Amino acid sequence: MNLKNKVAAITENSFNCPHCEVFSIQHWERVFIKKNNEVNIFSKFDEESFLPHSDLIKIFPKSNSEMNHAVDPLHEFIKKTNSGLVFYQKTSKSEFCVTTIENLYISKCFACKKIAIWAHDKLVYPAQKYQVEANSDLPDDILVDFEEARAIVDDSPRGAAALLRLAIQKLCKHLGKPGKKINDDIASLVNDGLSPKIQQALDLVRVVGNDAVHPGELNLNDNKAIAYKLFDFVNIIAEEMISRPKEIEDLYNGLPASKLEGIEKRDNGKKK
To answer: What pLDDT is attached to residue 259?
Structure first.
């Protein structure tokens, strides 16, 4: 787990990388222009039947298509290009650039070495996710909804909130509830040990107690503040109803066999 949680910002020299999410030093760089006279500068290559491109021959004069693709720099370049990754590539010839691109900046993560691109003070590549970690005990299908909500919350808070309501509904079903009406399921979870305060908090953000809002549907009243709270609610429900019982069970099962036998005898005695 990261020691710190700091949102990426143009004014900072260290933050959680938008690629690897590790808190790391960031190196800032400027962008310069090299004119390209080709009509179509977009590149995509067929890795299997690759025909050398004139510009690539200049960059990789010693590359051999028959070399091992895992170590061949030409094929490594093709692989990165086709993946859509933005990356640095040194060329074999030096060029003097005199024109700068203003208000466009690059940060390079010290940890993963990947770069991020900024227009003025806005991160434009990669898409920034909301800095919250999902509970590790969430089921895989719920984790998918959680991560998608993280990716879109800044651009579409209503869409993220709809996904998170759906995640709560799925989580209730995972915990043995019908999964049809969230307010009924949450009330049942409260009877099972979930804090009543969670039910009250969910009411405040129109997740339960409001028949006009259904899981997976957009609500015109949703905003970022509501979506941010829903991330926390998903994690809290998972923590109280999955993680803590699991921890207690692990601690219990870790007791010596003699102690477990004594507890079992005690409990059986109480039943009589």
So the answer is: 67
